[in-house]
Design goal:
It comes from Sphingomonas aerophila. By secondary structure, the chain is α+β, with helices and mostly antiparallel strands. Helix content is 29%, strand content 17%. Among the domains are: 36-81 and 99-124; 146-295, Cupredoxins -  blue copper proteins (Immunoglobulin-like, Sandwich). The strands form 3 sheets. A 6-stranded mixed beta sheet has the order 8-5-1-2-3-12. A 5-stranded mixed beta sheet has the order 4-10-9-6-7.
Amino acid sequence: MSQCSTPAYLAPMPARRPFKRLIAAALLPALLSGCDLVVMNPMGDVAIQQRNLVIFALALMLLIVIPVIALVALFAWRYRASNTDARYEPDWDHSTQLELVIWSAPLLIVIALGAVTWTGTHLLDPYRPLERLDATRPVAAGTKPLQVQVVALDWKWLFIYPEYGIATVNELAAPVDRPIQFRLTSSSVMNAFYVPTLAGMIYAMPSMETNLHAVINKPGNYAGFSANYSGAGFSGMRFRFHGLDDAGFAAWVAQNRKAPLPLSRANYLKLEKPTEKVPVIRFGRVQPGLFDAVVNQCVRPGTTCMSDMMRRDVGDSAAMTHMPGMGMPQRPRPQSPLTTSDAGAAPPAKPADIRQRGPAAPDQSRTPHQKPL
């Protein structure tokens, strides 16, 4: 009689060893100790305040989350089917004391979160100039912030220092403990400027200017990148941010001033063309007014600035005096019964009296007819 062997897929699985999982869980913190959680360990005061706000909000929410999870496990164990000693009250439906606890605790947490969020939203407004360098040092009266003009290009970052007349691509530097004012815009699509150790993310949009105030408190070489997808080269939109002491920053400025390449309008038009993984580029001179021209979309010669167009729309003809023919008084536009500003005017007696913008009948049209395919 032949012996039948058990199929492999029916054979009992070997017993798993739970202690291996415990060892792996114990080693996980050691493996993660090499990770730099820069958002939770920033080097700038604005980012530190934002981190503290996140931690405070998380702690408040855990005051509800942890007890609820613990009570779920407790109820499941205490009122299990095999526990015949547990109280059984099928007709119970209300407890005033329990209702007070259930509703008052979340209400107090929501009130606390709302107050902290409202205060933090105003204190950490990116448009608000800094009032302190850190928790113990206020900004001294008369301190002039370092202004950096930032342009998000495809796919690189342009940094202009109008105070020093220099510019760089994909490299940013600032002295330690000096307030920084960023003025940001974009050349084509919306982007997001983010240096996690410095401050929160801020958007850069074409034809608009956004502002960000921040300060770096410790020297170092930090990462910055784009936090908003902007096309094929998005992953390469990264730069380094150098926090330097006063002597180091002065040497960095001197190094850039020695660069022979100027950032003229012509060079900017070449630079704004889409390129990927661009190395650091330095410009020793910057044409005045270039950033404002980028914001107003009028870098290219002969292009009307958007600010001038808007001022002209509101009737300020003096805004266009620097452009030939644009500063002259405008003639009144002819009005018809359909374009008059008098909404209460009587309608025309005959529709035929209204001057038509196009042919009255299709057969009178001069547009060439589509030939049969």
